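Reviewers asked in the last cycle whether our approach scales beyond single polypeptides. To address this, we selected a multi-component target totalling 222 residues and predicted its structure end to end. The input consisted of the following lines:
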Amino acid sequence: EVRLVETGGGLSQPGGSLRLSCAVSGLTVGTTYMSWVRQTPLKGLEWVSFISDGGDIYYADSVTGRFTISRDTFRNMLFLQMNSLRDDDTAIYYCARGHWWPDYWGQGTLVTVSS
Amino acid sequence: DIRMTQSPSSVSASVGDRVTITCRASQGVGNWLAWYQQKPGKAPRLLIYAASSLLTGVPSRFSGSGSGTDFTLTISSLQPEDFATYYCQQANSLPRTFGRGTKVEVK
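The resulting structure, written as structure tokens, was:
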């Protein structure tokens, strides 16, 4: 059974940092594309970043220079380091398998950026 | 960025009804389109990819069609578990973009 479990969400002040983790079982993060997608009531679903099996990385313009995606193939985990957080980064963040049409998703972790 | 426009934004329907949701892309995306179902408090669930391919395990009452800029998701006979919000998403180019969703509500 494939399972993705995100942790690390919470409250941050503007300008702060958070690191999201996604523990993966049932598939190998190093052999597939993995993505982060976020969702807000205002902007809907937004693709944040993905990393390919070969290590190629994509970031949405809105997070380029502030967010960093990475993975640990030994622990089979995906990460999203989020720096210089802004109010509009407030969202539920999902990790997911794939970069065309993700077929496995985690349950999401809520990130709130507020002073 | 490719803008994905869904219509209607909501639809009221009864169990057994045929429901059709439309998605229009601001530029051609070939057949690089997916449909998701999302229920409150849950992650999106992939239903259809490549415009018309049904993911394994998804009931056959769901179907997708279209190519280029105009796409359709059809639920042939609505079931109680189908009341949810449905999203289209293009995978033709970066950034990947989603529609704003169509909520299927109880009539």
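Chain A has no helices and eleven strands. We regard this as preliminary and will revisit it once experimental data from Aim 1 are available.
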